[in-house]
Every structure is written in structure tokens, then in C-alpha cells.
Specification:
The protein has 282 residues and is mainly β. It is 5% helix and 38% strand.
């Protein structure tokens, strides 16, 4: 997988897993209409972690006065990888994040006070609550959060993977969607497969995947098949609805994020019992 950097330099590591849509996804063959003007994508609103990447996010209904949230991978959680079937909510945290401006310069530090949600089951996400608000970040640094799209990404869409850790932006397209992505003990659902141009590396884990037409986050970068092995750690395999396994060495993946907004209510508060919320529960 695309490992967190420290793990990439040492031994075992995991950089990503699939996004779990429990609702019907648009067909993978759906293609975005050509001709839409691309928005400018840069580093503004992204963050660097100790060994991963991430971003300051909001949802379509978030308010400027809400506590700001940070999105990264589940395997980037500072207390270690959540196990298969494990969902963590409300865990205390004091993790810090380096806030970046449009050019990738670190202009401030944000700090978490809670792990709102973290799992590596069906999806690979950690969402932190910070000690500040979107309005305060805007006032202090002139930085606005990235908005998480509430709709499924579309095959063929132009995307950018923005790594706050490496200050690198990868450009490619959504090649398609994977029914199940299996890596070691973990299985993810409806994962995004990149075209080959997004050759993400260790340290890019947790990077936002941004649709260049809307400027919104549609997925979170996480893994890739490094050595051509079958379904092993750092070598995820694709499994279709009939159980057929496909290995694509050198291809990288992300996990969709469109399911997340439905699980948050007023004040950016997590409520996994909301109608339409299909994220895994503890």
C-alpha cells in the first residue's frame, strides 16, 4: 500500500483501504461530460501529519462557526491501525497538523482534541475534531476548508491527489471502481482506481482526492499494488462481484468519501444513527 512514511522506511505498513458504500453506486461506466472547465487545485487547506497527509474538511451543511475537522486515513491514526471490524469514535487526541497555504508553505499549526471517527473496515478514514473553527482559521490564515462531496465520483473524472506531507500534487483520472479491494486482513468496498499517472508513494496516505471540475473532495488516497503480489499487505487485489481476482501492479487506489456527510449533523457532530448514514458502526 501507499505507506505512512515512517512505516515505509522501516517495515510493515498500510496506506489505505476501500470506501464502503452501502448504497447503490453509479455504474462504473458512467463518464463525466467533456468540456467542463477545471478549477484551480493547490495546497490550500491541506495539512501535513507526522507521517501522512490530510486536509481540513467541511460538509455541504457545515457552518463557519463549527469546529474544524481534519480528514486522513484510518491507518494514519496515531494509536495504531484499527483492526478489521473495529470502529473508533470519541477518542481523545492531541495530534497536531501543519496547515498549508496555496503554495505548500506551512503557515500554522492546528491541534486535535478528539478522534471523531476512525476505521479501516469498508473504508480507510480518520476524522479529527480540532480546537478551532473554520471562521477562526480563515481569520488567522486566510484558508478555507475543502468541501466533501455528497455524491458518488464519476468514472473518467479528472482528479488531483494533493499530498501535504510531500508538497506534491498528482494529476490523473478516475479509471473506474473496484467492487472489493482486499489487502491482507482488510477489505474495502467500491474503491476508486486511478489511471497510472497517479503514482502515489509512502507519505501520501490520507491525501484528499479532488475533482478538478467541482473542486470538492471525492475520495481519500490510500493504497497501491507495489510488487505484483496477490492480496497481501502493500499489494491489494481487486475482487469483482463473482469473486474473480485481478492484480494490477503499479496501480494505486483511493476510498470514496461521499458517504461521510450523511453521518454528520448540526455542529459537525457525528451521528451514525442518522437516516442515510451507512458508515460502519462500533
Amino acid at each position: 500500500m501507499n505507506k505512512p512514511l515512517l512505516a515505509a522506511l522501516s517495515a510493515l505498513a498500510i496506506a489505505g483501504f476501500g470506501a464502503a458504500p452501502a448504497v447503490a453506486a453509479p455504474q462504473a461506466g458512467t463518464v463525466k461530460a467533456p468540456g467542463a472547465k477545471a478549477v484551480t487545485v493547490n495546497f490550500a487547506g491541506t495539512v501535513s501529519l507526522s507521517n501522512c497527509s490530510g486536509s481540513v474538511i467541511r460538509f455541504p451543511n457545515s457552518a463557519d462557526t463549527d469546529p474544524a475537522l481534519v480528514l486522513t486515513n484510518g491507518h494514519c491514526l496515531e494509536t495504531g491501525f484499527p483492526g478489521p471490524g473495529e470502529v473508533i469514535t470519541g477518542q481523545s487526541s492531541s495530534r497536531s497538523f501543519g496547515l498549508l497555504n496555496s503554495s505548500g508553505s506551512r503557515i500554522g499549526t492546528l491541534r486535535a482534541n478528539q478522534v471523531v471517527y476512525s476505521t479501516m473496515t469498508d473504508t480507510d478514514v480518520t476524522i479529527y475534531r480540532t480546537t478551532t473553527t473554520y471562521a477562526a482559521i480563515k481569520n488567522s490564515y486566510g484558508i478555507s476548508p475543502l468541501t466533501v462531496s455528497a455524491t458518488h465520483p464519476v468514472a473518467g473524472s479528472a482528479i488531483k491527489v494533493v499530498s501535504g506531507y510531500w508538497k506534491t500534487i498528482y494529476s490523473c483520472n478516475v479509471d473506474g471502481f473496484v467492487y472489493r479491494l482486499k489487502e491482507g486482513d482488510w477489505t474495502w468496498k467500491d474503491s476508486v482506481r486511478y489511471t497510472s499517472a497517479c503514482n502515489t508513494i509512502g507519505g501520501t496516505s490520507g491525501s484528499p482526492v479532488i475533482d478538478t471540475t467541482t473542486g470538492q473532495v471525492v475520495a481519500v488516497n490510500n493504497t497501491g499494488n507495489e510488487d505484483g503480489e496477490r492480496c497481501t499487505e502493500n499489494n491489494p487485489c481487486e475482487v469483482d462481484a463473482n469473486g474473480t481476482v485481478t492484480v494490477r501492479q503499479g496501480i494505486n487506489y483511493a476510498e470514496e468519501t461521499y458517504l461521510i456527510p450523511a453521518c454528520f449533523t448540526t455542529g459537525n457532530k457525528l451521528d451514525l444513527t442518522l437516516s442515510g448514514c451507512t458508515l460502519p458502526r462500533p
